[in-house]
From TrEMBL:
This is Aspartokinase. The keyword Disulfide bond does not apply. Catalyzes the phosphorylation of the beta-carboxyl group of aspartic acid with ATP to yield 4-phospho-L-aspartate, which is involved in the branched biosynthetic pathway leading to the biosynthesis of amino acids threonine, isoleucine and methionine. One of its GO terms (molecular function) is ATP binding. SUPFAM superfamilies: ACT-like, Carbamate kinase-like. Pathway: Amino-acid biosynthesis; L-lysine biosynthesis via DAP pathway; (S)-tetrahydrodipicolinate from L-aspartate: step 1/4; Amino-acid biosynthesis; L-methionine biosynthesis via de novo pathway; L-homoserine from L-aspartate: step 1/3; Amino-acid biosynthesis; L-threonine biosynthesis; L-threonine from L-aspartate: step 1/5. One of its GO terms (cellular component) is cytosol. NCBIfam families: asp_kinases, PRK08210.1. It catalyses: L-aspartate + ATP = 4-phospho-L-aspartate + ADP. Residues 3-233 form the Aspartate/glutamate/uridylate kinase domain. Belongs to the aspartokinase family.
Length: 400
């Protein structure tokens, strides 16, 4: 009998009627004879009483240590696990609820963003033997000392894929509030289409560049063990997206050379004039990275050096730059748009199509960069939606 892991995100368990749909998805697979391990997120999103953000809002975060904060944050997933279990038992199914630690997820002590060191599935396997549906609180683990930890935002995706890997499950289903991985965030580009199959690397690039539908770490784990992942909608019966290893050679005649368009908001561009700073630029990277400020979109030339950082690091970066005597300029409220697709490799003219389609909308491009499978464009946040819609159209992504 094969094992299937099903993960349900915050919106999937947000209210009574969506939870009914969750139960249907679980029962459907159970009745097909699979052994089921369910991973759940906390109920709802910001504003909902038991969502992670709501739990944090109960306390003054200045007066809490990271260990206690993790204890608090881990409660949301425990609550939703018990609620789902209760609904299943009412329908006659036997269940076992496990915290992350009880499910064997052992982490380091880096509270708030712990790294999983090992997964011991003995407990889950034992409990599966008695026809139980196992419900695991996502997003959390335990240290070897017995302290509860959390895995960082989006961590339930990681829990699901890690368990899928360790249990050698047939596949992992990630249930969310959209029909699958789409050619763009449907909240931004209304005619975004579901992508039927996608490879790990394109999905990883999307997730890393802001498409929050799945956490990049989860994609990385799935790829290392070639674990099949399906992204599906709790509220519909559509097939969703299947994530697989890239098959065969690339078909360059495929009219869709781009998989998707995604974005990361709240970026700030920093420009350092190399001549005014008399070649001191090399050390700027070290200074910023030493303070844990991550830098991307790095364009270094003889005259000018540009890069972007997250808005939340701007104050610290400015302090470092001015204390070290740098002359720089700063451009806030930027958005990094990513055009993702491994098929663009070696195809001439992709960059010029991107630039032209943004220029056509009279939008200023602040910076560009590219790799073999992504092209990045930095624009002002106020222009981002228009730019993304234009790119989506340029590459025919709205056509099925
Ligand atoms: P969950 O609570 O189920 O984990 P998330 O909010 O983390 O859900 O992720 C789902 C959301 O991801 C969708 O509601 C959608 O707005 C957003 N999203 C961003 N980019 C994409 C994309 N390319 N395809 C699908 N969804 C996307
Ligand atoms: Mg999520």
């Amino acid at each position: 009998m094969s094992i299937i892991v099903q993960k349900f995100g915050g919106t999937s368990v947000a209210n009574e009627s969506s939870r009914e749909k969750v139960i249907e998805k679980i029962i459907e697979k159970k009745n097909k004879g699979h052994k089921i391990v369910v991973v759940v997120s906390a109920i709802g999103r910001k504003g909902d009483p038991y969502a992670t953000d709501s739990l944090i809002s109960l306390i003054n975060t200045q007066y809490i240590n990271k260990r206690d904060l993790d204890l608090l944050m881990s409660c949301g997933e425990i609550i939703s696990s018990v609620v789902l279990s209760n609904m299943l038992t009412q329908k006659g199914y036997s269940t076992q609820v496990l915290t992350g630690g009880q499910a064997g997820i052992i982490t380091d002590e880096n509270y708030g963003s712990s790294k999983v060191l090992s997964v011991n599935t003995d407990n889950i396997k034992n409990k599966l033997e008695n026809n139980n549906i196992i419900i695991v609180a996502g997003f959390q683990g335990i240290t070897s000392q017995g302290d509860i930890t959390t895995l960082g935002r989006g961590g339930s995706d990681t829990t699901a894929v890690l368990l899928g890997e360790a249990l050698k499950s047939e596949f992992v289903e990630i249930y969310t509030d959209v029909d699958g991985i789409m050619t763009a965030d449907p909240r931004v580009v209304p005619d975004a289409q579901v992508i039927d199959t996608i490879n790990y690397s394109d999905l990883y690039n999307m997730a890393e560049d802001g498409a929050k539908v799945i956490h990049p770490k989860a994609v990385e784990i799935a790829e290392r063990s070639n674990l099949k992942v399906k992204i599906r909608n709790t509220l519909s019966s559509s097939d969703g997206t299947t994530v697989l290893r890239r098959q065969g050679i690339i078909d360059y005649n495929d009219k869709k050379i781009i998989s998707s368009i995604t974005y990361k908001d709240r970026r700030t561009q920093i420009i350092i004039d190399n001549i005014k700073n008399k070649g001191k630029i090399q050390s700027v990277m070290n200074l910023l990275t030493e303070s844990n400020i991550s830098i991307d979109l790095i364009n270094f030339s003889l005259e000018t050096n540009m890069f972007t950082i997250d808005d939340e690091n701007v104050m610290l970066a400015e302090k470092i730059l001015s204390e070290n005597g740098y002359i720089y300029s700063i451009n806030r409220d930027c958005c990094k748009i990513s055009v993702v697709g491994h098929k663009m490799k070696g195809i001439p003219g992709v960059m010029s199509r991107i630039i032209n389609s943004i220029f056509r909308e009279n939008i200023k491009i602040l910076q560009t960069s590219d790799s073999h499978s992504s092209i990045w464009v930095l624009v002002k946040t106020k222009d981002a939606i228009k730019a993304m819609r234009s790119l989506h159209k340029e590459f025919n992504l709205g056509e099925k």
